[in-house]
Structures are given as C-alpha cells and as structure tokens.
Amino acid sequence: MTAALVDNFGREVTYVRISVTDRCDFRCVYCMSEDMTFLPKSEILSLEEIEVIARNLVACGVSKIRLTGGEPLVRPGVVGLAERLRQLPGLKELCMTTNGGRLEEFAGPLKAAGVDRLNISLDSLDPVKFRELTRIGKLERVLAGIDAAQAAGFEHTKLNAVVMKGRNAEEVVPLVRFALDKGLDISFIEEMPLGVITEHDRAEAFCSSEEIRDELSTVFDLEPIDDDTGGPSRYWRVPGSDNRIGFISPHSHNFCGDCNRVRLTTEGRLLLCLGNEHSMDLREVIRSRPGDDLAVQKALHAAMQLKPERHYFSHDTEPQILRFMNATGG
Ligand code: SAM
Ligand code: SF4
C-alpha cells in the first residue's frame, strides 16, 4: 500500500462513494427536477476508468466503497464492475445504495458478485404518496426488491428515508414498524439543500431528526446505542430488537470532525465534501496520462489538501450547492 490519504485536519480517508451514473428511473422530488438533463456519454467515466480510480484509491488505503448514483442499477455493466472491485486487495467492504426498483432482477447477481451490503431508499409505504415523491416510481416494485434482497441472502440491509413535512412526515411510525417486521435497519435523513427544486419549499418541509425522534417516542421506547460506525448516522434501538434506527442530521448535528469519506462524481471529479465544491478532476488525469497509476495517486494525495474542515448546511437559507445529489455520489 502507498501512503494513506490524510487531510490537513488529520482525518484519514478510508471510504469512497462512487456515482456510477447520474441517470435514474425515478425522479424523487428532493433529488431531481422534473426535466433533468443528464451528462453526455463522453463526459462520464467509463467502467474501466472507474476501476482505475478505485484501484488507486484502495492502494492508498480506502477500505470501503459504496456504489451509488443516480440509480446504480440503470448503468449497464454495473454487476461486472462490482465483481471486479470486490476483488481489489485491501478492500474490506463493497456496498450499494439503490432505489430498489430493479432488485428483483439484480439482487441475486449482486450477491454473487460479492456486494456485501445494500441500502435501499424507501420514503413512503403508501403507493399514491410514493408515486408523488418519486414522480414515476412504483412502490410494489421496491417492496418486491426488498424481499428479493433478503431472499438473495443480503444481511444488515438498511432502509433510507428522507423525511419532509407535508409529504411523508406522518409515515415515520409505519416505516419503523415495517423495518422492524422485516428485520431491517432504517435511517431517517434530513433533506439537504442540494440543487434548486420547485415542488416544495425546502425550509417549510424541513423536518429535524429531533422532531422525528419525538414522534417515534410516542409509540416506541427508544434507547440510544453507542455504535460509532464512523458515519454521519446516530443510532437508537427499540429494546428487544437487533435493528437500528438511525438519524442522519446534516443540519442539526455536525459530523464533519470524524469525516472519513470522499465522493467520486459521475464525470470523475473527486469531491472532498458533500456540502462544498472543492474537488479534483481525476478524469483529466487518467485521460491525459493513461496507464499512469502514480499520477493518479499523486492527484489523490494532492486532493487531500483541498478537503474543507466542515460543511455549512442550513435549512433556512437558499441552497449554497447548486449541483443535484444524483451526480455526486449521494
Ligand atoms: N438512487 C439511489 C437511491 O435513491 O437510493 C442512490 C442514489 S440517491 C442520490 C442516495 C440517497 O440520497 C438516497 O437515500 C436519497 O434519498 C438521498 N438524497 C437525495 N437527494 C437528497 C437531498 N436533497 N437531501 C437528503 N438526501 C437526499
Ligand atoms: Fe433517483 Fe435516488 Fe435521486 Fe430518487 S434519490 S431520483 S431514486 S437518484
């Protein structure tokens, strides 16, 4: 292994989230506008280019990769990519975040490719609301996808729900019941101001993790678990259950001090922080110096100098970040 990736604040980067496509078969209201334009093919990394960057990241000490998007399962060849990444020496965990709509077809192949864990997004159990939130998604496909993941043998699968007032905030109790019944973990996410959307006012819809916990506490006994996974989630549990209920609170809880992650965007920018624009153009490096692993590793180390100390998300100001989540490895 070459030298570890350590930033100016002494944080070691061991986790990378890779957006394998900016495209998606859903149009979630908080993530995309209705009329998205997607990147032309020449601008997005090929699977081989993703592999080169991932190989060098792992050579520099990255031990966990998450494939995400857009919807990773709409990228042709993603299962083969997963299979090759899983074999990188030094990689301890390969995960995927998916909307679940294609898991009936893909859960078995992903398991066979060596993917270790899945996160599946699920914001509503009401088919009409689910359709409104995703604009084009079908709830029954996602529920079948969750069953397929469990049948394929995936364990510790986690559901992710973005909670918004006036849209799905009253569903947090049914979502937890569903997760506990199925033996799944669940994390509730505060909506982040990424990209300009028009369908709701993010400030008005903002629902804090504390408000969600208060609502859940009217029905469930919640005990905090000291389960530091190095990520932004803080976890609670219902006594007697093994499943975790997590809260990702970018507004109300700043988790930047322990940040161990970077993101690789669809077009090959290494993004040093979700809430800032600091980035390194790795596509330029690999296209101008094909086959030069050392150049990639030098660029990775140089990028560490750009990692900002923290983000400054706020739910009552205009979005400071104009890019959408789908291209950034959310
Ligand atoms: N398509 C996959 C999915 O939905 O799980 C993977 C990509 S999606 C961008 C990854 C996660 O980001 C999802 O759980 C989604 O709910 C979340 N997300 C998207 N936009 C968000 C926003 N503005 N604020 C908070 N979470 C967001
Ligand atoms: Fe697609 Fe995921 Fe964004 Fe929804 S959150 S539009 S499923 S990328």
Automatic annotation (TrEMBL):
[4Fe-4S] cluster 2 binds at residues 256, 259, 273. The gene is moaA. InterPro entries: Aldolase_TIM (IPR013785), Elp3/MiaA/NifB-like_rSAM (IPR006638), MoaA (IPR013483), MoaA-like (IPR040064), MoaA_NifB_PqqE_Fe-S-bd_CS (IPR000385), MoaA_twitch (IPR010505), MoCo_biosynth_MoaA/MoaC (IPR050105), rSAM (IPR007197). SUPFAM superfamilies: Radical SAM enzymes (SSF102114). Gene3D superfamilies: Aldolase class I. It holds the Pfam family Radical_SAM. GTP binds at residues 17, 66, 97, 158, 261-263. This is GTP 3',8-cyclase.
